[in-house]
Amino acid sequence: MLATQKTETVTKVELPLPLVGRGKVRDIFAVGKDKLLIVTTDRLSAFDVVLPNPIPYKGKVLSQISAFWFQLFKDVVPHHLITADVAKMGLDDEIVKKYGAQLKGRSMLVDRAEPLTVECVVRGYVTGSGWKDYQKTQSIGGHQLPAGLLQCAKLPEPIFTPSTKATQGHDLNIDFKQTVERVGKGTAEKIQKLSIELYQKGADYAANRGILIADTKFEFGIRKGRVLLIDEALTPDSSRFWPKAQYQPGHDQPSYDKQIVRNYLLGIQWNQKPPAPELPADVIEKTSQAYLDAFERLTGRKLEN
C-alpha cells in the first residue's frame, strides 16, 4: 500500500532558469530561445481550482505517460517532446547536480510552440457535463444524439466538443464556428480531425489493456508553420479512464483518474470556488494508486521513480 511507501511530493519547482509560467499543475522554464523545460508537479486541480493536498507520484505519472503516448502517436502528428531524460537535456551541469533528482521522471524538454487557444475535447461516452447536457437537450456540444442513451453509454462515434483554454477560472464550451473564429478554418478542421484520430487510436490501444477512455482533451501548438501535439496526452488528469471489466452503463463508473477526487468534492457539496477543502488521507491514497494503476496497465511497466 502507498501508506507504507516513502515518497516525497513536489508542489513547486524553483530553478535558476527563466520562469515562463506556472499552470495548475506544471511549472515551465525557458531553456534558450526555442525550448522549454516542463516540470509536472504533484499539484491537483479539480473544477479548475488547485487543491491544497498534493497526490504522491502524480506528476511522474503524467509526465511519463505523456511521453509514452507522444511516442505512440508520432506517426499521426508531430509532437513537441525532445527528451524526458534529464541527462540528455543539455542543462548546465550545476543544475543537473543540484536539481536532477527532483526533475527525474517528471520533466520534459520540449520545442517551444505557440499554443492554440482551444482545448480539443473528444468524448466517446455520455458522462460528466456531457451527461448533464444530454439530459436537458439530447445533445452534447451541439451534436444531436439518439434518444434513450443511458448514463455512461458509448456514443455511436466519438464527438469533438472544444472549449476555451482559461488561464484562470473555468474553461467555456465553444462550438466549431467559434473554434474557426479563434484559430482559422484550416487549423480548426485539422485539429478536429487529429483529435478524433488520436482519441480513437488511444482508446483502441487502451481497451486492449483493460481501460476504457471515456473522454479526453488534447492541446496543439504551432511551430514553424506546423501543428504540434503539446502539453500532455491521454493522462489521468486530461481523461476519464474506466476499468473495462467493470463497465456497465446506467450509472457512474469506477475510475483510474481524478474522478475519485471530483466525486468526493461533489459529495461534500463544495461550491467549487477557492479555497478548496483539504482531502482526506484515504482519498489521496486511492487517487495516487489509481494514477499508478493506469500507468502500469497502459504502458506495461513500472513508473520510473
Protein architecture, described:
By secondary structure, the protein is α+β, with helices and mostly antiparallel strands. It folds into two domains: 9-112, Phosphorylase Kinase, domain 1 (2-Layer Sandwich); 115-272, ATP-grasp fold, B domain (D-amino Acid Aminotransferase, Chain A, domain 1, 2-Layer Sandwich). It is 31% helix and 24% strand. The protein has seven helices and 16 strands. It has helices at 58-72, 93-103, 128-137, 176-183, 185-207, 259-267, 281-299, and strands spanning 19-22, 26-31, 35-40, 45-46, 49-50, 81-83, 107-111, 114-115, 118-125, 139-140, 143-144, 154-160, 163-164, 211-223, 226-230, 239-243. The strands form four sheets. Strands 8, 9, 12, 13, 14, 15 and 16 form a seven-stranded antiparallel beta sheet that branches. The protein has a five-stranded antiparallel beta sheet with strand order 1-2-3-7-6. Strands 4-5 form a two-stranded antiparallel sheet. Strand 14 and strand 15 form a beta hairpin. Helix 6 packs antiparallel against helix 7 (281-299). The chain is globular, with a radius of gyration of 19 Å. The relative contact order is 0.17.
Instruction: Find the count of extended strands (DSSP E, 2+ residues).
Output: 16
Could you name the CATH class of the largest domain? Alpha Beta
CATH topology of the largest domain: D-amino Acid Aminotransferase, Chain A, domain 1
Taken in chain order, the helices and strands follow as EEEEEHEHEEEHEEEEHHEEEHH
Radius of gyration: 19 Å
Biggest sheet descriptor: 7 strands, antiparallel
Percent of residues in helical segments? 25-40%
What CATH architecture of the largest domain do you see? 2-Layer Sandwich
Q: Uncertain spans, ≥5 residues at pLDDT below 50?
A: 1-6
Derived from helix and strand composition plus strand pairing, the structural class reads: alpha+beta
How many separate domains make up the residues?
A: 2
The proportion of residues in beta strands is 15-25%
Number of helices: 7
Q: How would you sum up the global shape?
A: globular
The fourth-level CATH homologous superfamily of the largest domain is ATP-grasp fold, B domain
Mean pLDDT across the residues is: 95
End-to-end distance, in Å? 16 Å
